[in-house]
Amino acid sequence: MLIFFFPSLQSFSLVLIVLAVRASGFMWTCLCSQDLREIVFVIQSQSNSFHVRQAERRRADLLEQAQSLTEKPPVVLLLHNLSDNEGDWSILPLLPYLSQSFGKNSSWIVFLEEETNVKMTKLVQVLGKFDQNKEWFLGKPLHDEESTIIHHYAFAENPSVFKYPDFSAAWALSIPLVVRLANKVRDEPLKSDFTIDLKHEVALYIWENGKGQHLTAVPELCTEPDDSPQAQHCATTLRSLPPLCGEPVSADDVFVAVKTCKKFHSERVPVVKKTWEKDALFLEYYSDHADPSIPTINLGVPNTERGHCGKTFAILKRFLSDDVPKTNWLLIVDDDTLISLPRLQVLLSCYDPFEPVCLGERYGYGLSQGGYSYITGGGGMVFSREAVVRLLKSGCKCYSNDAPDDMVLGMCLNALGLPVTHSPLFHQARPEDYARDFLAHQVPVSFHKHWNIDPIAVFNKWLKDDLRTTTAGGLNKSTKTEL
């Protein structure tokens, strides 16, 4: 038995306060320990070396935070390491594995991107507000302002009614929901051939035509910059600027190939010349007609109404020939692609040109049935010289000149075991086709299509940088503020 003597009531009160604080601290440690053991973090990582390093840093940060709270850390998985299945990045085919591995001893699967900062104690508190024995789909909601082609014009009458998660803010599934969805995936083959906008398609699958779970908005899942005053209440945040990997790649190390055809020489090519052409040191226009006034080069491949595989493979061969300057990087774009080359040069500083890098906006075809990923062409396709060398050495070729070039390249890369590297800064569609809150935390590299817009105005608003005011990170501060 311990006997305390208190010379005054004030001292007695002070001891009670100290004991209460210690007790509450003990209770918090126990609670946090229990909750962390029941959370599985899945970092949506990629196999490119730069992204592996980013994901490993994120995992190390999560585990370091957890170590200060509990002796038993949570499970932190890197998505690209889980299996050899190319479709793992599309999440849904992965659900049976997550259910089988963690369905009995866990409560939550939390997905986050490589750049998502997590405040561990805050996140545990947030998840604690929800009954883990029920089905929950949690995230920061996005919605379309108008029906869009990238979502197959879903909810055309009222696009804003459907909410889907911003992956950058992290998103979570309760284990009961994971288990039920996993059983559904096992029993019913995934139907969609194409994976275009993963976050929207995952939400649609979970929603199940109104019979499943709607996304529950969680205000603490944020995309605020981590140094913003508005981030005080947030459990997740983002870096205030994209990663700084060194000096931007020099303009003389990027060769730009613009695909065009005679009927667009007077309509689309002038837009390129008035917007981003001036930032390219090495650029050629490839057409079905040689026009010296532009000038364009006829590669001997007739124009086709559908895909442009023949033209693209001719460009790849020309890139490795002595007919063009030798550079480490090849950018292939359409004549209606709007792109910021200075921003691309900053982005490329993060990648090793001596690796087979294939970079752009990633789509998928037949991922649940052993399909493949590919870079969608309209947003721009970037290849390191090493990637082009391996592609052409493999003997891969078009099955017809009008085959879809981006998809054929995807099949070739898949056969070679070369990864497609995704960047959300490339966009296959117009700014109007993306959720406003999604673009708000980006400094985009490209957009595509001139349909129903003023392309020069779009370029000036979204992609134009004044290099004289460029920051050390290579991005215009005023542009970042506007976005």
Structure description:
By secondary structure, the chain is of the alpha/beta class. The protein contains 14 helices and 23 strands. It folds into two domains: 34-238, Spore Coat Polysaccharide Biosynthesis Protein SpsA, Chain A, CATH 3.90.550.50; 251-482, Spore Coat Polysaccharide Biosynthesis Protein SpsA, Chain A (Alpha-Beta Complex), CATH 3.90.550. It has helices at residues 9-37, 49-67, 95-102, 120-127, 175-187, 198-207, 269-274, 309-319, 341-348, 385-393, 405-416, 436-440, 455-462, 477-482; strands spanning 39-43, 75-78, 108-112, 116-118, 137-139, 141-142, 164-165, 171-174, 194-195, 216-217, 221-225, 236-238, 254-259, 282-287, 296-298, 329-334, 337-339, 358-360, 362-365, 372-375, 381-384, 421-422, 446-448. The strands form six sheets. Strands 15-14-13-16-21-18-22 form a seven-stranded mixed beta sheet. A six-stranded mixed beta sheet has the order 2-1-3-8-5-10. A three-stranded mixed beta sheet has the order 4-12-11. β13, α7 and β14 (282-287) form a beta-alpha-beta unit. α3 crosses α5. The radius of gyration is 25 Å and the shape is globular. It starts with 8 loop residues before the first helix and ends with a helix. Belongs to the glycosyltransferase 31 family. Its main location: membrane. One of its GO terms (molecular function) is glycosyltransferase activity. InterPro entries: Fringe-like_glycosylTrfase.
